[in-house]
Amino acid sequence: MNELDLVDRIRRMSGGARPREGLLLGIGDDCAIYRPKSTEDMLFKTDQLIEGVHFLPTLPPAAIGQRALARALSDIAAMGGTPRLCLVSLTIPRNRPASWILAFFRGLLALARRTGTILAGGDLARSDKLYCDVMLCGVVPRGLALRRDTARPGDNLWISGRLGKPWDRPIRPRLDLGRKLLRRDIACTACIDISDGLALDLHRLCLASGVAAELDRVALLKRVARGASLERALHGGDDYELLFTLPPRKAGPAGTTKIGKMVAGKPGAMRLEGRPLAPRGYDHFGIDIT
Amino acid sequence: MNELDLVDRIRRMSGGARPREGLLLGIGDDCAIYRPKSTEDMLFKTDQLIEGVHFLPTLPPAAIGQRALARALSDIAAMGGTPRLCLVSLTIPRNRPASWILAFFRGLLALARRTGTILAGGDLARSDKLYCDVMLCGVVPRGLALRRDTARPGDNLWISGRLGKPWDRPIRPRLDLGRKLLRRDIACTACIDISDGLALDLHRLCLASGVAAELDRVALLKRVARGASLERALHGGDDYELLFTLPPRKAGPAGTTKIGKMVAGKPGAMRLEGRPLAPRGYDHFGIDIT
After folding, report:
1. Cβ–Cβ of B129/A127 closer than 8 Å?
2. From the CA of A197, how many Å to the nearest CA of chain B?
3. How far is B126 from chain A (nearest CA, A)?
4. What number is the average pLDDT over the span B149-171?
């Protein structure tokens, strides 16, 4: 099977070149063509998934494909968006057969179908390491995208789901919740997804908004996943829950919990039950760049 | 320098988060936000650049950054498009310092500025191999994008520039030519960029359009780059010129040459001065997938 044959198989799995949902031309030309709606802003995100860095070589190909797309979908969810199309770049070690590549795309496309994401293009290459990059494009009603730089002192801090879950479970991007947070009666002021740990992502939200945060230890302990420690819930990564802020008298949708509040103070400063909380989390660069 | 500091440096180099050219929000949130125009279709392309596969480790970082963007720009040119924004994913070996990364982005951003491309986001990671993926988004007037599946028997075949150029020279994407080909008086019927060799890319154009092609050996020999062979011009890669079709009585813009014609026949079949031409070129997958 050469590159043309393989691309043809993937194209047919992705639904072919037929126009749908604004996509005028999918896999098979120099570029994909998309016709945007005048009522929507467009969201762009890219996310890498590298063997040995983001997952272990034992993960099956379909799960890798699912995970590669899910991570980017979580960012679209954090803006209140709806995914439209993705481009997938994949570099595959020479010893993996075409069946491995097709299983990867089956896993990715199963999640793509469930979330309304069209595979519109990509790039394949061979090297000695498994490397994947997903570019995702979503839409959001004009002017309504949820941002991380718009939280205000006095807002309450909310999260969805539970923190400190096992790394290797399937990711369920919070797309429905993100869209609910756009509702006027909920009045969400800012949102971010927790991909590198609550402490680090809250720090980013605080820095962007120029505010500080105080976390409620008792409320937080109730949201720690079964079998996880508070340390893991605070500083572990890969939770893919949404962290968002609401005005004081507003309540979050079902399945979300208030865990603290935003306060005036040194931008980025965080306290847990009065004690300083370090913005430690998953940092790919850490201390090794000089 | 940690990830936050490095991203902050790159963000400032890219022009910061200020809105411009439809980009409402650049680097620094979960997604970039772009507001499309109702008169335009959007083009999407992703292209990988891997050390040891697409370039030698001796290439300086600024040239790698330039090349990574240029390859994707060539695809936007082939659709008649104008680039708007890019997302850049970069995985860097642990032994390369932050100064290497910043030089890579200086090279990429110099070409981005010359072509009106905004760096709107990306992803950084550390691994043991240098790996880069550029996602590029461009625009084209509604319904006018140049495709590869619309050539007709009887059309003449044209190319820009010269073929068989050295692999390591800087790439100059043919954006101006692509936009010229949109003009009604030129009446371009199909277009593709030559990235994997004339023979292979012409084969793709023929397959997509369901036609065959006949090449004129004398005309082609005049377009072979100085010091290159006809073999290299036909089957070498990395030329990044445009290959396009025009109706019989139309002439291509300055700097382009007629090298053959499209004919009815077995889709994808090609002849050079009457003899069959094999669709050999740069194929990442070649024979090693089973």
Report:
1. yes
2. 14
3. 6
4. 93
Residues of chain B contacting residue A205, judged by C-beta atoms under 8 Å apart: none
By three-state DSSP, how is residue A65 classified?
Answer: helix
- Residue B289: which of A35, A46, A97 has the nearest Cβ? A97
- Tokens for B1? 């320098």
Going by the DSSP 8-state scheme, the letter that residue B257 receives in this structure is E
Q: Please report, as a single letter, which amino acid is at residue A187.
A: A
CB pairs under 8 A between A and B: 251
- Which residues in chain B touch residue A103, judged by CB atoms under 8 angstroms apart? none
Contact criterion met (CB < 8 Å) for A48 and B129: no
ipTM rounded to 2 decimals: 0.92
In tens, the pLDDT along B22-72 reads: 999 988 889 999 999 999 999 999 999 998 888 888 899 999 999 999 999
By C-alpha distance, the chain A residue nearest B287 is A2
Residue type, A278: A
- Asked if the Cβ–Cβ distance from A30 to B78 is below 8 Å, we say yes
And the tokens for A63?
Answer: 């799960």
- pLDDT block averages, 10 residues each, chain A of length 290: 81 80 89 95 95 85 96 97 97 91 96 96 90 97 97 98 87 96 96 93 96 97 93 89 97 97 98 93 47
Chain A positions in Cβ-Cβ contact with residue B133 (cut-off 8 Å) = 46, 48, 89, 123, 133, 135
pTM above 0.95, yes or no: no
Contact B285 A2 (CB under 8 A): yes
Residues 6+ apart with CB under 8 A from B78: A30, A31, B146, B174, B178, B191, B192, B193, B242
Spell out the residues 6+ positions from residue B223 whose beta carbon is closer than 8 angstroms to its own: B159, B161, B162, B163, B233, B257, B259
| Spatial distance between the Cα atoms of B220 and B46, rounded to a whole number of angstroms | 30
Q: Using one digit for the tens of pLDDT, what is the confidence trace for B162-171?
A: 999 887 788 9
- Among A11, A31, A148, A194, which would you mutate to test the B interface (most chain B Cβ atoms within 10 Å of its Cβ)? A31
Q: At B77, is the secondary structure helix, strand, or coil? A: helix
Question: Distance (Å, rounded) from C-alpha B55 to C-alpha B107?
Answer: 15
A85·B44 Cβ contact <8 A: yes
**Closest by alpha carbon to A138, among B83, B121, B109, B113?**
B121
Cα distance from B194 to chain A (closest Cα, Å)? 10
Cα–Cα distance measured from residue B268 to residue B272, given in angstroms and rounded to the nearest whole number: 13
Task: Report how far apart, in Å, the C-alpha atoms of B229 and of each of A136, B74, B223, B273 are.
Answer: 42, 23, 11, 17
With CA atoms as reference, the chain B residue closest to A35 would be: B41
Q: Can you list the alpha helix ranges (DSSP code H) found in chain B?
A: 3-13, 61-78, 98-115, 175-180, 198-209, 217-221, 230-235
